[in-house]
Specification:
alpha+beta, 8 helices, homodimer, 25 strands
């Protein structure tokens, strides 16, 4: 080893946090020759028309909870996004999480034949073709969707398993309020029932105030048509609400005078209708995606801790990171300008000293809501703190990742 | 026709611009029955892992200028994005425009074998693996790229042909300044030469001040790995500069003391090096994507005019729309918060009266730069205004679309 190499390695091991000197142990002096390309990808007509990812990329979704069968009609079926490989805030449409209660089949809809009906307690019943919907004033907004069942269990090893039932996309479509104003909501119209094209009629009941606020009838997703697994050609986006309200393959909106029970109800009926809307909101929540479960830090030194934060209550206002199991906290950097009800990327520069430690992240949203610890959640549900937490309803508790002295990262919940 | 239908049709024809009453002629009373789905898409393992778009979607890129051959080595080869079908600001990675000077083949690189070297006038020559690059602090930013040759000709019919050589993505990677600070730029290092893995060594020379400002070594694009056609596994992003500077399949950054001539030079050498950087900047520019060439308005009535604006000079500050061939202008709505050197979606509610008219859009950026008219560009180049404009260098002139009384939209440039 040359003295120059040796000097450099010493420098890097220090894990310097000086501006302009990050001390990344991985940097090495240049070798004389760099490898040549392996070959070329031929630009076929198909690849010219619509590109593909590299054959070396295998980031993929997995069935959530391990259940998967193409014949899984009648089963809850969920596909989790690979958050451990995520970068930025956009989830590629091909990797967006999927939740259905109808198995892994999805409707194969010809958009030329698809119609949206608005009916019920309205002055004018209306039916729209997709072409007609596209003529209305549109909005484009970044929003996350999250399944209410997205939660960490001690049997989960990766962040895809613990938190992969949420994704974020740039959605484009018509505000539901625009169409409801066209139809004219009558007195007494306090709820809407949104109904999709499904064998068993997937539907959700939503307060009309939410419908008039920020719900979007989406035909666009990440710059192209909504994907079939996301509700092609039309899905309802209910920003910040549990995933199940974001009805796919949307074909009817009925304005009604009371909460309608649907197949999609998971305990919502037990809630006071006056406060039900608040119960539907997701978060505040966050999770560290690197380093996360089953990943490994190859050596002590510099790392960027990175993760995602979100809240159904609005914009992410603050994310804190603890590297000592929640005893002390530091503010993370927020990437870009947080959008309301959208994933927000956070990060923090960190030098790992090689000792066992526990990483946590904590989100505070613009309403001042703070993501709770597992112990707080356990106390809320009157459960002993040293037992596995059995959360009723949503679980937005802090996710702890333990890093062993060998660099391996583990899910640290009990 | 019932009196209710008749009333509604009268209302809609008026094209009312009242809040809550857009008067969209396309809305119709509800029919009794809505169509059932055509069938189901089977959730195969492949579709669970990585989803696909609907078989009914055929939005596609086209070879720019009509030249395309898989054996087109040695030819300029450009693939234009379908802006006429774009929604929002994100271009799907599969539809992102492609420009190369090497034909439609692209390198097929194994990221495990790829290396980035930083050398030349630096204190420490460095070589990085992709894994090492991912350990550095990262940034995520929305940026457009545009080919300097992106320009409208009278022979072009669609906006894909006139303006399809620009796209916008969420890019993630390491700031080039971070690595240059690691390497230590020596006195006299005034330029960098960025070199990609290509048969004929695609390379560009960039002022070191730009390199230290906001250039990104990107491994992430729209939430996943950069696509092969965009430079997998690593591309240089030079925000706001002509597309050719955004070197793909990046493998070397050499710090040098003077401008280096490369195969990529298209007249840059004729410029004064002291001001060359400004000449490299794109825009300000904008184009209406709906309604645009070859589209058709089915009937008089309400439409949302929509388009994209961008500038290499920073954020889009204002977009104006003319519906009378540039005689009068109205401010368009800007969608969301404009990002620096990023596509910005604009729109304006409009009622077409059925008469022939000409639509134009005009972008002003945060520096106060205003997109010029075709006549201004002609005057700048000392060309008669009634002849086809032959622009030397970039062409960011205003795009006019003529709408005939039958609703057909045409490219109105001469």
């Amino acid at each position: 080893m040359s003295s120059r190499q040796s000097d450099r390695r010493e420098f890097l091991k220090r894990g310097a946090a000086l501006a302009g000197g990050l001390g990344l142990a991985a940097a090495k002096p240049a070798s004389a020759q760099l490898p040549d390309p392996e070959g070329m990808i031929v630009g076929t007509d198909d690849l010219v028309a619509y590109g593909k990812r590299s054959r070396f990329e295998d980031s993929k979704r997995i069935p959530h909870g391990g259940r998967h069968s193409p014949d899984a009609f009648g089963l809850d079926f969920h596909i989790a996004a690979p958050l451990q490989e995520s970068v930025g805030v956009i989830t590629p449409s091909s990797l967006h999480y999927v939740g259905t209660t109808r198995g892994s089949y999805v409707p194969d809809i010809d958009p030329a034949k698809h119609r949206l009906m608005i009916h019920g307690l309205v002055d004018r019943e209306l039916v729209f073709t997709m072409e007609e919907l596209r003529r209305f004033p549109s909005v484009t907004r970044l929003h996350f969707i999250e399944c209410a069942g997205n939660r960490s269990r001690s049997s989960h090893t990766t962040v895809q398993e613990t938190h992969g039932m949420t994704s974020c996309a740039e959605w484009t479509g018509v505000l539901l309020s625009t169409l409801l104003e066209e139809a004219g909501v009558q007195d007494g119209g306090e709820w809407i029932v949104a109904e999709g094209v499904e064998e068993v009629k997937g539907a959700s009941t939503i307060p009309v105030n939410k419908a008039m606020d920020d719900c979007i009838l989406c035909y666009g997703m990440n710059g192209e048509a909504v994907r079939p697994q996301q509700g092609y050609p039309l899905r309802l986006l209910v920003p910040g609400f549990e995933g199940i309200f974001n009805v796919k393959w949307l074909r009817r909106i009925k304005v009604v005078d009371q909460y309608y029970m649907t197949y999609n109800d998971y305990g919502h009926l037990t809630q006071d209708p006056a406060t039900a809307a608040l119960g539907y909101q997701i978060g505040p929540k966050s999770v560290i995606t690197f380093p996360s479960g089953s990943q490994r830090l190859p050596e002590p030194g510099f790392y960027e801790i990175s993760g995602l934060a979100w809240s159904g209550g609005g914009k992410v206002a603050r994310v804190e990171i603890s590297t000592d199991g929640g005893r002390s906290w530091q503010d993370a950097d927020i990437r870009g300008e947080p959008q309301p009800m959208a994933h927000t990327r956070f990060s923090m520069n960190w030098t790992w000293d090689g000792n066992e430690c526990e990483l946590q992240s904590r989100c505070t949203d613009e309403l001042g809501q703070v993501q709770p610890s597992r112990a707080q959640v356990a106390a809320f549900w009157n459960q002993p703190p040293d037992q596995p937490v059995r959360v009723k309803g949503q679980d937005n508790s802090i996710q702890p990742w333990r890093i062993d002295s060998d660099g391996n990262v583990h899910n640290a919940i009990i």
